[in-house]
């Protein structure tokens, strides 16, 4: 058995079930682990602490998958862990159309594995050496458990690069998903309202095709849009706009830098609410909002759901300025009594920091701003208490005077 021994003082996070061992925390490597190999983690005193998967080229040299010395990390373990994650989503999906994240990496005890269900198709990501080496077991487990029509791999190329993995994408099993697949978002038991059909492109879309983490927030924000002129900034395929239109928005303006995303947004609006006037603008949100400010354009509801601005600690300050800029612009464009739904999916920007950033923007805009709702990632993206990094999406709904 290959082992690593941690440096003195570096054992505490592992004892507290945080799953990452950084290269700088390792004192000695006993043996010669290959990428993806199973490695035991020992404390500085030689005591057994945990077991996980080795990754020689990642800053996170080892990812822990069990804290139980008697638990082998074999195929049986992997199949059981996937089954447990799926059991945890029971009640969120029951039909052939629901889109739902079934496995959320470390938060489900499966570092590097993401499985998204798009109706009868699965999109998977294998983002660590440990998972990439076990791809066949993962696929076999998913087929046995869920009998999908097809499994398509969309491993994020940026993460693969950091992990020293070759980028891999493509059909893993069964049938290829159609270019435009109709899915329906999850709904919480007890939540009312119909679930809109939404088109997703699993093979060509961003991430695995759709931003599943906003499922509940789209319904929440949409509910405030009746009769409103709505600006959907960073609209992607129009998820928020579809809900706003169905709730009776008077007019929609969608902005995104991606042409293909907007083409799908148009199709989603046609599918759900063809009569709602909608202007789709391919462009930079920062620039378009500045133009609107200059020309005196105003809105009743503004949604800001930008991509991740902070990818590392070093980018947090710059990212904070970016968030402040767009929120300041949005606050200036709102009619009195209007609503700002603003989000950040940067894990490195805490909910607390995000609120401070929006506060700073409100001060500069000289607008009285009240928080009326707080948002988080949907429940199919659980937050593991011992792994705060799994909490990344936060949002505020603000009434602006
Ligand atoms: N709100 C969307 C998800 C947004 S993801 C939904 O509900 O599904 C972020 C989007 O921002 C992506 O579609 C990306 O193409 C777009 N984007 C990134 N930078 C941008 C910029 N500067 N201006 C406009 N769009 C941008």
Note down, in words, how this protein is organized.
There is one protein chain. The protein has about 400 residues and is an alpha/beta fold. The protein folds into 3 domains: about 60 residues, Archaeosine Trna-guanine Transglycosylase, Chain: A, domain 4 (Roll), CATH 2.30.130.10; about 110 residues, Transcription Regulator spoIIAA, CATH 3.30.750.80; about 190 residues, 3-Layer(aba) Sandwich (Rossmann fold), CATH 3.40.50. The chain has 11 helices and 20 strands. Strand 14, helix 7 and strand 15 form a beta-alpha-beta unit. The radius of gyration is 22 Å and the shape is globular. The protein starts with a strand and ends with a strand. The mean pLDDT is about 95.
Give the helix/strand layout.
Blueprint: E1 2-6, H1 12-15, E2 20-22, E3 26-30, E4 38-42, E5 48-54, E6 60-66, H2 75-87, E7 99-104, E8 113-118, E9 121-126, H3 129-133, H4 135-146, E10 150-154, H5 157-162, E11 169-174, E12 181-183, E13 198-200, H6 215-222, E14 229-233, H7 239-246, E15 251-256, H8 259-272, E16 278-282, H9 285-295, E17 299-304, H10 316-333, E18 334-344, H11 351-365, E19 369-376, E20 394-400
Parallel strand pairs: 1-4, 9-10, 14-15, 14-17, 15-16, 17-18
Antiparallel strand pairs: 1-3, 2-6, 4-5, 5-6, 7-8, 8-9, 10-11, 12-13, 18-20, 19-20
Helix pairs in contact: 2-4, 6-7, 7-8, 9-10, 10-11
S-adenosyl-L-homocysteine is lined by residues 206, 211, 214, 234-237, 239-240, 255-258, 261, 284-286, 305-307.
């Amino acid at each position: 058995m290959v082992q690593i021994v941690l440096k003195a003082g570096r054992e505490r996070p592992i004892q507290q079930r945080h799953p990452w061992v950084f290269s700088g925390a390792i004192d000695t490597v006993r043996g010669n682990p290959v990428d993806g190999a199973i490695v035991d983690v020992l404390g500085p005193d030689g005591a057994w602490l945990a077991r996980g998967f080795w990754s020689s080229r990642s800053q996170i040299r080892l990812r822990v998958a069990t804290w139980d010395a008697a638990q082998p990390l074999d195929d049986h373990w992997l199949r059981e862990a996937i089954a447990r994650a799926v059991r945890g989503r029971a009640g969120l999906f029951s039909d052939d159309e629901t889109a739902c994240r079934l496995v959320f990496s470390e938060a489900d005890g499966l570092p590097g594995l993401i499985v998204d269900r798009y109706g009868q198709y699965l999109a998977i990501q294998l983002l660590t050496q440990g998972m990439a080496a076990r791809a066949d077991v993962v696929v076999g487990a998913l087929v046995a458990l869920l009998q999908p029509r097809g499994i398509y791999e969309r491993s994020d190329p940026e993460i693969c690069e950091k992990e020293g993995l070759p980028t891999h994408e493509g059909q893993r099993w069964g049938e290829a998903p159609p270019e435009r697949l109709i899915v329906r978002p999850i709904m919480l038991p007890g939540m009312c309202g119909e679930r809109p059909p939404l088109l997703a492109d699993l093979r060509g879309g961003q991430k695995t095709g759709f931003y599943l983490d906003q499922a509940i927030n789209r319904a929440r924000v949409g509910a405030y849009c009746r009769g409103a002129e709505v600006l959907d900034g960073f609209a992607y395929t129009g998820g928020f706009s579809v809900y706003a239109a169905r709730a009776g928005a008077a007019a929609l303006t969608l902005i995104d830098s991606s042409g293909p995303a907007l083409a799908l947004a148009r199709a989603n609006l046609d599918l759900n609410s063809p009569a709602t006037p909608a202007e789709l603008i391919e462009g930079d949100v920062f620039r378009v909002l500045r133009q609107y400010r200059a020309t005196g354009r105003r809105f009743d509801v503004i949604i800001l759901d930008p991509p991740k601005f902070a990818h590392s600690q070093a980018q947090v300050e710059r990212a904070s300025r970016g968030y402040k800029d767009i929120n300041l612009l949005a606050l200036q464009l709102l009619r009195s009594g209007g609503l700002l739904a603003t989000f950040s999916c940067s894990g490195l920007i805490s909910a607390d920091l995000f609120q401070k950033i929006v506060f700073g923007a409100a001060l500069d805009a000289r607008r009285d701003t009240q928080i009326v709702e707080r948002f988080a990632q949907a429940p199919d993206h659980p937050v593991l208490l011992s792994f705060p990094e799994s909490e990344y999406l936060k949002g505020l709904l603000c009434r602006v005077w």
